[in-house]
């Protein structure tokens, strides 16, 4: 990686999102992964989906090996101007109102049923056997 690497605007990198021309952004660096698309263990679709956005989180979430990170160096084409990267929406699930008392009582009912239901079935089996022998 040269110290005089080119700095790209995000929109310029985002234009390279096709199978014959695919660039991705990981940790502020731009990689031309077009020659690697067919070799990628996760398939080319994964890289194509990450092509027009910052793929840093996706890359880190997968947990790539050190050799995979070293391999990226040969696809390096420059840096991205991080001020031009649009902010990704932060999706959060809405907080659910939980009633601790309701959780405790339903847990108690489940434990009680786990204990009593087998006893009821066993009692019914013995009663059925007892009454069927009397006839």
TrEMBL record:
Keyword Transmembrane helix: yes
Xref: SMART domains: Cyt-b5
Keyword hit for Translocase: no
GO cellular component: membrane
Cellular location(s): Membrane
Keywords, in A-Z order: Heme, Iron, Membrane, Metal-binding, Transmembrane, Transmembrane helix
Main location group: membrane
Family: Belongs to the cytochrome b5 family.
PANTHER family associated with the record: CYTOCHROME B5 (PTHR19359), CYTOCHROME B5 HEME-BINDING DOMAIN-CONTAINING PROTEIN (PTHR19359:SF152)
Protein's UniProt name: Putative cytochrome b5-like heme/steroid binding domain-containing protein
